[in-house]
Design brief:
The complex is a heterodimer of chains A (494) and B (123). With 494 residues, chain A is an all-alpha fold. Chain A is 73% helix and 2% strand. A two-stranded antiparallel ribbon of chain A has the order 1-2. Chain A has a two-stranded antiparallel ribbon with strand order 3-4. In chain A, strand 3 and strand 4 form a beta hairpin. In chain A, helix 4 packs antiparallel against helix 12, helix 7 packs antiparallel against helix 8 and helix 12 runs parallel beside helix 14. Chain B has two helices and no strands. The chains are: A mainly alpha (494), B mainly alpha (123).
């Protein structure tokens, strides 16, 4: 196919790039206080809408007659439903972030163009990563995403904790990427090709021990990115130190992108290998355990949410463990659905922390939320819905996604794993409900300490949308289930 | 009895072993046969052009040097990527030219951006 045709196929990836460059160019030639800066979110949202529309249009719904995925640029990229669905999740998260960006940027000392551009570049890296079919594309798009995220973590330079978080994330992230690189190199050495679809077709790789080593190395790097134990040490410090809006974005999108790459690797490379399901099983159990236990003793709500993110990674990994053992596409559908609800729950929860300011400072400790319900009942209600969804209480989306996951795991007789996960959920109820208790049942420290005026316009809208979708995904899940069940159409054929 | 297998690595192993042996030998011999006894503290103190230190070497210098170094690395890597294209541009034809132009334009945009942001204003 011609170059223009191929560019047309990857237009969802090109739109954020063009958006980033256009905002940067405008930002370059206007003075600091120019009124056009209020239009940036609109421009950004237009590009996101174009990209999302193009993605939605190209999703193939027909799960019965599987079609060959579209390979572009000499098979460097594979455009299949997994790429389209996961990219949509990422774009939705980005939209929720851009809704309040205009006012937010007026209050922090960050050049507007750079904020928008970095977020767009991070999203471009993620979409490229999900669409990559060969090792080189995977590696450099992983780096695009990671480096943009490292910079975003430290962009506002608010406190020494932020700088510390950035340094930790950068150094550990670079290290994890080198693990992935080593694993990819070993796979190349074993198979002689860098294309995933060719390696998927190879019947047997001779040196099984070496293949196991390569797979483990790649798993280590990817487990770092999604925050799985024992590669989770960066998550609490980075989530706590980064500016909360960026934490909200990063916790959701990097995880979705990392999981998508993991799905692709498990589908093509890891399923046939010995011990792959064992490895994933141990990682899942450790993640569930550590994530839930460590959150119990936290005094900072932001850190508690970080550990809860780790435990949610554990739940999502259940689906991948089942998939690597049984190759049942429904397991991955359950994981993707879990990631979908996780997007809204965690984004909303972090945005809530961002939203509640006590005397112009972010509310971080549990005590800072005391007595919120008397002064701002709607905010407290929103957070209650999000917290109950995170804990997995019906009728919120969190319950249904967990239910779907556990149902699939039990169907494949992973009884121990599900019991483990349910114990984890029971433990998690304590630290989730503590927030609700603080908001509703404890008196406020000083009367009127939660300022009445909304700090950032559009933040209310973002939070409302997160809560709305959280409830919607729990009450009416079938339509969305249809969405995620289409992921396997056209995935690289084995 | 040892069986000596000739492999691709034989040369490297011999070379590295001789390397280690000679280096160690030189150091050991100079330690054993070198001058002994003069162990005053002044012998080990740092010096500057033959005289004791004139000022504290922990001076601060501007972070702009670091930025210039980073920029050099970036544009050097750009040059590294341009060289293979320069060698094969005839085979790559017009399509190749436009792709490389896109690459150069992206990086050119980068330098215009930082130029306007004042990276070259050293005052």
């Amino acid at each position: 196919m011609t170059l223009t045709q191929q560019l047309g196929f990857i237009s969802p990836i090109l739109y954020p790039i063009v958006g980033a460059f256009s905002i940067l160019t405008i930002d370059l030639f206007v003075s600091k206080e120019h009124k056009i800066k209020n239009v940036y979110p609109l421009i950004a949202l237009i590009f996101i809408a174009l990209s999302a529309f193009s993605l939605v249009q190209s999703i193939q719904w027909d799960t019965q007659n599987a079609v060959e995925p579209i390979y572009v640029f000499s098979k460097a990229l594979v455009l299949d439903n997994l790429y389209r669905i996961a990219s949509l999740f990422i774009l939705v998260a980005l939209t929720l972030l851009f809704l309040f960006a205009s006012n937010y940027l007026k209050h922090i000392r960050v050049s507007e163009g750079e904020y928008y551009a970095l977020l767009f570049f991070a999203v471009t890296g993620m979409m490229l990563m999900i669409a990559s079919n060969d090792f080189i594309t995977l590696f450099f798009s992983l780096e695009i995403m990671s480096i943009s995220t490292y910079i975003l973590t430290g962009l506002t330079r608010e406190s020494s904790r932020t700088t510390e978080a950035t340094m930790k994330y950068f150094i550990m992230g670079a290290f994890a990427t080198s693990f992935i690189l080593y694993g990819l190199t070993l796979f190349y050495g074993l198979s002689g090709t860098i294309y995933l679809h060719l390696i998927a077709q190879m019947i047997q790789i001779e040196n099984q021990g070496m293949a196991l080593l390569a797979m483990t190395l790649i798993l280590i790097g990817l487990a770092f990115k999604i925050g799985a134990v024992p590669f989770h040490m960066w998550v609490p410090d980075v989530y706590e130190g980064a500016p909360t809006a960026i934490t909200a974005f990063m916790s959701v999108t990097v995880k979705v992108a990392g999981f998508s790459v993991l799905i692709r690797f498990i589908w093509t490379l890891f399923s046939g290998m010995p011990f792959s399901s064992h490895l994933l099983l141990y990682i899942t159990m450790a993640t569930l355990l550590i994530g839930n236990l460590y959150a119990l003793t936290q005094t900072s709500v932001k850190r508690m949410l970080a550990y809860s993110s780790i435990s949610h990674t554990g739940y999502a990994l259940i689906g991948l463990t089942v998939f690597s053992a049984t190759r049942d596409p429904q397991a991955v559908s359950a994981t993707l659905y879990y990631l979908f609800t996780y997007t809204f729950m965690t984004l909303g929860a972090f945005l809530f922390i961002f939203y509640i300011r006590t005397s112009q400072k972010e509310a971080e400790l549990y005590e800072d939320f005391a007595g919120l319900a008397t002064e701002r009942p709607w905010s407290a209600f929103a957070m209650t819905v999000l917290i109950l969804s995170l804990a997995g209480v019906p009728p919120m989306g969190g319950f249904f996604s967990k239910f779907y996951l556990f149902q699939n795991a039990l169907h494949h007789q992973f009884y121990g794993l599900v019991i483990f996960a349910v114990f984890g959920t029971m433990i998690s109820l304590y630290y989730y409900l503590k927030v609700i208790v603080m908001m509703y049942m404890k008196p406020a420290k000083n009367v009127g300490q939660f300022k009445e005026e909304t700090p950032y316009f559009g933040l209310t809208l973002s939070m409302a949308l997160s809560v709305l979708f959280t409830v919607l995904l729990g009450l009416a899940p079938t339509r969305f289930l249809e969405w995620v069940s289409a992921w396997s159409v056209g995935i690289i054929f084995g | 009895m040892y069986i000596f297998l000739l492999s691709n690595w034989t040369n490297a192993v011999i070379y590295i072993s001789i390397l280690f042996v000679i280096s160690l030998a030189i150091i050991l011999i100079s330690y054993i046969f070198g001058p002994q006894g003069d162990k005053r503290a002044e012998k080990l103190a740092p010096y500057e052009c033959g005289v004791p230190l004139l000022d504290d070497s922990r001076g601060r210098f501007s972070v702009k040097f670091y930025l210039i170094a980073i920029l050099f690395i970036l544009f050097d890597i750009e040059t590294v990527f341009l060289i293979p294209w320069a060698l094969t541009f005839r085979t790559l034809g017009w399509t190749g030219l436009f792709e490389v132009l896109t690459f150069i334009l992206v990086l050119g945009f980068g330098i215009i951006y930082i130029w306007k942001r004042g990276i070259f204003d050293w005052d």
